[in-house]
Amino acid sequence: MTVVTRFAPSPTGFLHIGGGRTALFNWLYARNTGGKFLLRIEDTDRQRSTQAAVDAILDGLQWLGLDWDGDAVSQFERKDRHAEVAHQMLAAGKAYRCYCSPEELEEMRAAQKAAGQPMRYDGRWRDRPESDAPPGVAPVIRLKAPQEGQTVLNDLVQGEVTVQNAQLDDLILLRADGTPTYLLAVVVDDHDMNVTHVIRGDDHLTNTFRQIQIFHAMGWDLPRFGHIPLIHGPDGAKLSKRHGALGVDAYRDMGYLPEAVRNYLLRLGWSHGDDEIISTEQAIEWFNLESIGRSPSRFDFAKLENLNAHYMRLADDTRLVGLIAPRLEADLGRSLTDADRDLLTRAMNGLKQRARTVVDLAQSARFYVAAQPLSYDEKASALLDEKGRGLLKELAEAFAGEPDFTAAALEAQVRAFAEARGEKLGKVAQPLRAALTGSTVSPPIFEVAELLGREATLSRIRDAAGAA
């Protein structure tokens, strides 16, 4: 048997981070087993579905590196097939026409609520003859669900779960206008797409028992189901925007790398011993459904940032320059030159060691390509007092005559310079840092000077030495 999984988002908004995890688990299981990972856009809600949301979902999946097999399927475009199946059940006596008006249904619910009963359709048209149909009323088609016994689901994550069939009413398959309901469309699509494993959030567990009745009515084989616990916030409450329930695109905008987000989402509810850093290749090799926990996981931005910092240090320098370039260009109001990009690439190893996000990285790299004279932050300005400027004037003369403009040679020169004046190294190095970067925090300052080169270094020192 070839494993076939699917991710089936509704295009009514962005790709939620929880949806990203669901897609990841389906993708990993398919890749681990040598199977297929399919994408189905469940766009039957025509009023809320938008092309912009479809594009956001596709973009989010591509950014996460989750490639799907074949073309994405539109559920709406298969509506005729869904209706065909409903009529097959009707002809086989597995479904029936219901002529209840909206007013009757509302009265039914009100009476059940007043009596303290569960609100569900009472089956009043289940066995009535068509001759009783009121004139001019377009019926819905309802499933004739079993009323006795129980349905048992051997869930791949939750274990055995049982529901009494009396709790399940006769769900609507086709609305009065002939359009299929979500519950019918999902079952037909999963069957026709040969889906073998339905891996989704446990908020769908109730839907699963209702969908199983449709599978049984059609005599179709059931896929295996695995319901993943939802993601909660750090306080244990349902994940909301204040916790991080944002679209995948927001995490990209906040400066996270896709490999870090993949790693983090993998560890939200799945484990492999004590391993925290798990590459995509390892994840594909190790992933299984048995290691998904049954309890909700908690979203933790601090852990995500730590993971991202790790992957930042491993990332290719040229790639990182490409990621920070749009941010720098927007900030500077100009395009980066080839010389700028070359400088940033050479400087990247020192920059990325301290950065936690791409946003951090862009901010820390800005001084390399900023126009002169630099702007100095408050702490840097404090270092450029009369004494600091005096030291810098002398240091510029020493640097101008340095034949070996390397980090090691410059450090040795500054040490000798400080010692000759009875100063500690920091008393000279910190004003130098302020002059070259506009800040008191940067990569090692002698490496910075070497990367900037003699001309730019001397120009920046002289700017700072002349600052009022």
Give your account of this protein's structure.
It is a single chain. It contains 18 helices and twelve strands. It is mainly alpha-helical. It folds into four domains: 1-70 and 229-314, Rossmann fold (3-Layer(aba) Sandwich), CATH 3.40.50; 78-228, Rossmann fold; 316-369; 378-465, Arc Repressor Mutant, subunit A (Orthogonal Bundle), CATH 1.10.10.350. It has a three-stranded parallel sheet. A three-stranded antiparallel sheet has the order 4-5-8. The protein has a two-stranded antiparallel ribbon with strand order 6-7.
Number of DSSP E strands: 12
Kindly name the structural category: mainly alpha
Q: Write the CATH homologous superfamily of the largest domain.
A: HUPs
| Low-confidence residue ranges | none
CATH topology of the largest domain: Rossmann fold
CATH class of the largest domain reads Alpha Beta
Intertermini distance: 77 Å
Q: Quaternary state, please?
A: single chain
Compact summary:
The protein is mainly alpha-helical and 468 residues long. The chain has 18 helices and twelve strands.
List keywords for this structure.
single chain; about 475 residues; mainly alpha; Rossmann fold; 4 domains; three-stranded parallel sheet; three-stranded antiparallel sheet; elongated
